[in-house]
Specification:
The chain has 264 residues and is an alpha+beta fold. Helix content is 26%, strand content 26%. The strands form six sheets. Strands 3, 4, 6 and 7 form a four-stranded antiparallel β-sheet that branches. The chain has a three-stranded antiparallel β-sheet with strand order 5-14-13, with no helix packed on it. A three-stranded antiparallel β-sheet has the order 8-12-15, covered by helices on one side. A hairpin with a 6-residue loop joins strand 9 and strand 10. The longest helix has 21 residues, at 11-31. It is globular and about 45 Å long. The two termini are 28 Å apart.
């Protein structure tokens, strides 16, 4: 069933969505020990591809999507999103990198991303990454039946503004299920009490991107890579979330727990 253009998932459909989501989360858990100084983003991409195909028996959902050439997206330092893995891009100490993975299993999509530190980050980089995670957490905690999507966006923006960071507005979260990018669009800013009313059975991603400088971005000539115009650092986290009768479920919960990050 659907409310307008937003699908309402049955219990059986939620099982399928949860399985795909957990596979995506497992890829990020697998790759974590490999994100070290001296590794290329191409090597990380190959590891993720092989794990999805050979271990999970799933399909790398990004590969070939709108002609995207790789399995994951690797966005380093001032890259906001959609960075393309490359053999020439070698991670170095102090870098921060977002790895974004999507898988397809039995017709259902799982999509998640998280930040990694390459060696010890700068004070600013650590604060930006932690704050972006806190913003994601604040947004997710607004999710429940009867809440509005504007509540989610407002909570995210409030955390960013408190730390004097900016919210990227050109890219947003999205509905997901048997379609990779579906309704609703989930903005990471907004006003309380405005927007779509959430109902149990809705599934979507929340994936805020915060910049240390101004919010303005630009797309590079490759047609994918998005960077901050002022070359300031950018960070992003993404979870798939289902609206439950009593609140929310994080479908892409990390297999190893949250480590030093507060649980959602």
């Amino acid at each position: 069933m659907a409310r307008g253009d937003v699908p309402i998932r049955s219990a059986d459909e939620l099982v399928m969505a949860r399985h795909a989501a957990q596979l995506a989360a497992e890829v990020l858990s697998m790759i974590e020990p490999h994100v070290v100084p001296g590794v290329s983003t191409e090597a990380l991409d190959q590891l993720c591809h092989d794990h999805i195909v050979k271990v999970q028996g799933a399909i790398p959902a990004n590969l070939g999507y709108m002609d995207y050439p790789k399995t994951v997206l690797t966005s380093v330092n001032h890259v906001v999103c959609h960075g393309i893995p490359s053999a020439q891009q070698i991670l170095k100490k102090g870098d921060i990198v977002n790895i974004d993975v999507a898988v397809k299993k039995d017709g259902w999509f799982g999509d998640t991303s998280r930040m990694f530190f390459v060696g010890a980050p700068s004070v600013l980089a650590r604060r930006l990454v932690k704050t972006t995670y806190e913003a994601l957490r604040a947004g997710i905690q607004q999710v429940k039946p009867g809440a509005k999507l504007g509540d989610v966006g407002h909570a995210i923006a409030a955390v960013a503004q408190r730390e004097h960071f900016t919210v990227v507005r050109e890219y947003c979260g999205h509905g997901i299920g048997q379609i990779y990018h579906d309704d609703p669009q989930v903005l990471h800013y907004g006003r309380r009490g405005e927007g779509l009313t959430l109902e149990a059975g809705m599934i979507f991603t929340i994936e805020p991107m915060l910049n240390a400088g101004k919010r303005d971005t630009k797309e590079l000539a490759d047609g994918w890579t998005v960077v901050t115009k002022d070359r300031s650092l950018s960070a992003q986290w993404e979870h798939m979330v289902a609206v439950t009768p009593t609140g929310y479920e994080v479908l892409t919960a990390w297999p190893g727990g949250t480590g030093g990050y507060a649980p959602i």
